[in-house]
TrEMBL record:
Keyword Nuclease: no
Gene3D superfamilies: 3.40.1190.20
Record's protein name: Tagatose-6-phosphate kinase
Superkingdom field: Bacteria
Reactions the enzyme catalyzes: D-tagatofuranose 6-phosphate + ATP = D-tagatofuranose 1,6-bisphosphate + ADP + H(+)
Amino acid sequence: MILTVTLNPSMDSIYFTDTFSIGAMNRCNNPVKAVGGKGINASRTAAILGSRVQAIGVLAGENGKLIQTHLETEHFDSFFLTIPGESRNAVTIMDQAKNQTEIVELGPEITDTTAKEILQKIITLTTSEKEVTTIAVCGSANTKNEQLYKNYLEEIQASLGNSIKVLTDLSGIQLKNVLTGPVKPYFIKPNIQEFSELIGQPLKQKKDVIPYLSHELLDNVPFVLISCGSLGALARVNNQLFDITIPQIEVVNPTGSGDATVGGIAYGLDQHFSIEETLRYAMACGMSNALEKKVGFVTMTNVLALKNQINIVKIKNI
Ligand code: ATP
């Protein structure tokens, strides 16, 4: 069983338009609407693949009620705490040139009290559900506490030990604080821009990343995946580096492909697949998501077809 944490769920609206222009009145067809947030998208992906998933997080205000209604139709279990404020809207515009323009609200504030309540829920659920193999902590949080996720890792380890794999899909200061803290996550998945920001180096292409896969910030993180969009990914698994290439596809909407990738990783780990098979599922999930209008959504048919077209080459040991 997989447990996911989403401290900033969203109500997503995705507009597809062939006539988008900045500074003008843009008329569009009705948007594709769905519930989002990195952890929720990863939950949906892993549940579609067949894992049992429990999503944990917070909801607020009228949007929170709407999100709750949508969550009831998903194929995973949910526990979402109601907090003051308003859950966010996230608007994506996919235009004629396949640009993705996103407008994403901040979301309700996560106070220390809320953060503690959620942490307690993670620990009690994991303790009572003996089958939890993996906890995926995903996405931004509107919080003044820059140590929030670092504290989560420490508390989870203190309460649950090392037997459960903790995956984090974070960016910015929260990721940096997690990586400089005493308890490392089992897995991280920055995309190339997030990794560039993390290490303070301008990384443009996949090959630019390779020398930095031995960066000290990655020390003691067993499984690092740097996702590179249509170019696939680079992985560092313990001391081995892998170049992962993927076939070209006719992209519909790549938003949420990273979240689907994390869902695929969580699924592979939950099923105790080999690292190679886990990487195949992860890449296939990212691609399958990119083939859909919906965000954080994959089809088993596409995942199974794509996973055999992924090329994984060992580059070297470090
Ligand atoms: P997001 O933040 O939108 O969830 P991300 O930036 O974290 O995405 P990406 O690196 O864009 O993640 O994508 C993750 C994976 O999804 C890639 O490694 C790849 O397997 C697949 N993918 C993403 N974009 C494309 C694309 N344009 N064509 C094919 N595959 C893609």
